[in-house]
Write a structure and sequence with these properties.
- With 284 residues, this protein is an alpha+beta fold.
- The protein has 6 helices and 17 strands.
- Strand 1 and strand 2 form a beta hairpin.
- Helix 1 packs across helix 3 and helix 2 crosses helix 3.
- The protein starts with 8 loop residues before the first helix and ends in a 5-residue tail after the last strand.
């Protein structure tokens, strides 16, 4: 391996082969540092080589292109993120699927306020019909829900501002908050939140701000049993705790993001969540 700080064809080949054989990123970095690389430069080089490699493979397979996605500022692994009016806890992160679990995003009072404002406006949740893009009642999704307008009340605007700072994504790119209420046995079977670009019904939806690129599910109460948010591709279950929120992003509308997720059946008690979906561009 070269000791210079340029990415030669030889180095590129070496990184791709090693990573493909399952050698971890820290081991690759350690090997490069040992042969004279600055650590930060080595990290950047590995990222650049592997990203270009994945993009090339994705193009060959006919996958949709990757786009920029929201991402919390997690350099140096902070335990807390300052979002202006609050310190949000970082409780867990996962690289693939990209998942970050936050604590204390909302106060108990803010959770109660959202539930009280949503309750009189709840209707049976719909899923998007593939061909037309219209909503339809579906056994896959047995909750009741409603949408707030973006910035509908000062409290909602404050929460949306906080979310924007937390994940570094403009407030304008967010859909209005959706509140969902699950009774015992209600669930949301595993699905992807992005819209299938090949379905005719997606055209109109995508015209309003492009694809969904990330989701934040905020837990508004504590169910007694059940109601976890599950990520089957990672065998990950997130327990629903009041005020906590699980963030996940998906850089292309494709299962390779491993962003398949669902709401497990509520076994005892009830479950309230608020979901914020983030689009590529301004959502109108
Ligand atoms: O209630 C959940 O945990 C859940 C699971 C999957 C919510 C959503 N998806 C969603 O709102 O998209
Ligand atoms: Zn979902």
């Amino acid at each position: 391996m070269s000791t210079s700080q340029t990415i030669t064809a030889e180095l590129r080949e070496w990184i791709i082969t090693q990573a493909g054989a399952g050698v971890s990123a820290p081991s690759l970095i350690a090997a490069m540092v040992k042969s004279g690389w600055n650590e930060d430069v080595a990290v950047d080089a590995i990222e650049q080589v592997l990203r270009a490699h994945v993009d090339g493979a994705a193009r060959q397979q006919g996958w949709p292109a990757a786009v920029p996605v929201p991402e919390p500022l997690l350099d140096d692994s902070p335990l807390l993120i300052d979002v202006g009016d609050r310190q949000v806890q970082v409780l867990m992160t996962l690289a693939s699927p990209r998942v970050v679990l936050f604590g204390d995003l909302l106060s108990p009072e803010e959770c109660e306020l959202l539930i009280a404002a949503a309750r009189p406006r709840l209707k049976r949740s719909l899923t998007v019909q593939r061909d037309t893009g219209d909503g339809e009642v579906n056994q896959e999704r047995t909750s009741d829900g409603m949408f707030f307008e973006r910035g509908e009340t000062p409290a909602i605007a404050r929460i949306e501002e906080r979310i924007a700072r937390l994940v570094n994504w403009p407030v304008e790119n967010g859909e209005g908050l959706q509140v969902l209420h699950y009774q015992p046995s209600a669930q949301y079977k595993p699905h992807y939140d992005y819209f299938d670009p090949d379905q005719p019904g997606s055209t109109g939806i995508l015209a309003r701000g492009g694809q969904r690129v990330a989701t934040l599910v905020i837990y508004l109460n504590n169910p007694v049993k059940g109601g976890a948010t599950v990520f089957p591709d990672a065998s990950l279950e997130v327990a629903p705790h009041q005020g906590h929120a699980v963030f996940f992003s998906y850089e292309r509308p494709h299962p390779s993001t491993r962003s398949l997720h669902g709401g497990a059946p509520v076994i005892e008690g009830e479950k309230w969540i608020a979901t914020k979906w983030l689009r590529e561009r301004e959502f109108r």
